[in-house]
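Database export, one record per block. Field names are fixed; values are copied verbatim from the stored entry.
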Amino acid sequence: QVQLVESGGGLVQTGGSLRLSCAASGNIRSINAMGWYRQAPGKQRELIAAVTGGGRTNYADYVQGRFTISRDNAKNRVYLQMNSLKPEDTAVYYCKYQDNFEDYWGQGTQVTVSS
């Protein structure tokens, strides 16, 4: 079993920054990919950023250059540094861990960007 717990969300003004953290526990292997997704009200959940076990990253176009994903395999944590936040970044942000059998999700953390 895998458990994921996100933290670091909150209310921030336009142009501000937040750092999200996801703590993973259970049967975690550093070789597997982890990622951050978000879901705004009335919209589908969408990929924001992902990092492979080897450290390769990819980003959604609309966060490229503003968000940075990183992972600490020794601590089983993945982070999302979010800069230059915009009101359209408002959403619940979820952490995902993917192994060969299934995807695991955290409970999400709310990010609200005020204009």
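Remark 1: The longest strand covers residues 18-26.
Remark 2: The CA atoms of residues 33 and 98 lie 6 Å apart.
End of record.
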